[in-house]
Specification:
Radius of gyration of chain A: 18 Å
Number of domains of chain A: 1
CATH topology of the largest domain in chain B: Alpha-Beta Plaits
Low-confidence stretches of chain A: none
Number of strands of chain A: 7
CATH class of the largest domain in chain B: Alpha Beta
Distance between the termini of chain A: 31 Å
Largest sheet of chain A: 5 strands, parallel
Number of helices of chain B: 6
Mean pLDDT of chain A: 93
CATH superfamily of chain A: NADH:ubiquinone oxidoreductase-like, 20kDa subunit
Distance between the termini of chain B: 35 Å
Low-confidence stretches of chain B: 1-5
Oligomer: heterodimer
CATH architecture of the largest domain in chain B: 2-Layer Sandwich
Strand content of chain B: 15-25%
Largest interface: A-B, 33 and 30 residues
């Protein structure tokens, strides 16, 4: 790790995910110190910056797209990042939120999902008997989409959540231009 | 040809490695004995060969053949671990993922799943170019000891052959044609059949994915300590050579 390398800028965002992949970034543990010598963090929940301050080298996306705000954020990342990484199974293939796409055995899975969550579910106490529809809420998409179906994704780091090892290994190799794919033994979809 | 030739065997090569085979052996049977792993999903030890998943496709004499059904031939040069074949296999496995609903993070077979393990072995990590079909498929939990989550079925037919040939029951069979071909049970639902959790067809090794589920044992082994957490699929066969 040479000090001569200019620091790379990275940005991260959590879309339709559980924030577990961001927590997994912390599983890098003390190697974070090594990593922070190579990068500055721009827009990210980790820095609490809500907007890009300048163009970034690497954007890291957790979660797929379940609403229009997710799509806006993802497009913003694609516009502002040279390399875009989908981190974790939700970003890669929709993950748990994508269960609403097909597993509900319904012709209108989104309607059935919302009805059960807010109206008909046995253990719901919802005095309004309505599905939340405040205009401030982002509009839900018909389905949950993996990131690669919305924008071009350059790399995908698999896992639910990915291990600290695979995140550190991939990022440090990408930053030093040495990434040639994953070791097969560390690829996990769970 | 003399009758003794069958016993003495003949040799052919897989990726340049000399392999001995006996008359009537398939390329895969000879390769397994020699410690050369050829990826496969619909083939399973002890069951009759079917040759339907095509993950075991190899090049023999310039032609693409299913190694699990193609008889080995003397002097043949077989290609197995080539970039071209592995890319084709990866695409086949990816399409199987997309044809059903394979959500590894919520599947109790994760870590024991041959489809998932094959994806690891074939480096299925790049952004997909295929659409997700997301079919609506049934969950049959009618039987007291066994559940069928057909979202995860890859139609390999291993349960069909195990039930017919080993158990002598014929609980499973194919219905439909083309992309609509599915594995179905011989009755209204599984409870309507003579299925038993002791059947070979219901054992954890026959279903390569998490479709046939034996109830109440799913998480006896925690995620992270399962079969393919210990090594890549096929490593037991490859270790024979070392």
């Amino acid at each position: 790790m040479s000090d001569a390398l200019p620091k790379a800028r990275i940005a991260t965002a959590s879309l339709a995910g559980c924030f577990g992949c961001h927590m997994a970034i912390l599983d890098i543990d003390e190697r974070l110190i090594e990593l922070m010598k190579l990068v500055d963090v721009d827009r990210s929940p980790l820095t609490d910056k809500k907007r890009f301050t300048q163009r970034c080298d690497i954007g890291i996306i957790e979660g797929g797209c379940c609403n229009e705000e997710n799509v806006h954020v993802l497009h913003d990342f694609r516009r502002n990042c040279d390399v875009l990484i989908a981190l974790g199974q939700c970003a890669i293939m929709g993950g748990l939120p994508a269960m609403r796409n097909a597993i509900m055995h319904s012709d209108a899975p989104l309607r059935e999902c919302l009805d059960e969550a807010y109206i008909t579910g046995k253990y719901i106490r919802n005095t309004t008997h309505n599905v939340p529809n405040d205009p401030a809420l982002p509009l839900l998409l018909d389905e949950v989409y993996p990131c690669s179906q919305v924008v071009e994704i350059d790399y995908q780091i698999p896992g639910c959540a990915p291990s600290g090892d695979i995140i550190f290994d991939t990022l440090s190799k990408l930053l030093t231009g040495k990434f040639r794919g994953f070791e097969r033994e560390i690829i996990k979809f769970d | 040809m003399s009758g003794t030739k069958k016993e003495t065997g003949f040799s052919f090569t897989i990726d340049g490695v000399e392999v001995t085979a006996y008359a009537g052996q398939t390329i895969m049977e000879a390769a397994d004995e020699a410690g050369v792993y050829i990826p496969r999903l619909c083939d399973h030890e002890g069951l009759r060969h079917q040759g339907s998943c095509r993950v075991c496709t190899v090049k023999a004499g310039g032609r693409s053949v299913a190694a699990c059904t193609q008889p080995a031939a003397p002097g043949q040069a077989v290609e197995n671990e080539t970039a071209h074949l592995n890319k084709m296999r990866r695409d086949l496995v990816e399409m199987l993922f997309h044809e059903g609903n394979h959500l590894c993070p919520i599947c109790e077979a994760s870590g024991n799943c041959e489809l998932q393990a094959m994806a690891y072995r074939l480096d299925m990590t790049e952004a997909t170019k295929f659409p997700y079909l997301e079919p609506c498929r049934a969950l049959d939990a009618s039987h007291p000891d066994i559940a069928l989550d057909t979202n995860r079925c890859i139609s390999c037919g291993r349960c069909i052959r195990a039930s017919q040939d080993v158990d002598g029951k014929g609980i499973f069979g194919y219905v439909g044609r083309g992309i609509h071909r599915r594995v179905a049970v011989n009755g209204e639902n599984l409870a309507d059949t003579n299925a038993d959790s002791g059947d070979h067809a219901m054992s954890s090794e026959v279903c390569p994915v998490g479709c046939i589920i034996r109830k109440r044992v799913g998480f006896a082994t925690p995620i992270g300590e399962r079969e393919f957490d210990k090594g890549l699929i096929g490593h037991e066969i490859e270790e024979k050579r070392k």
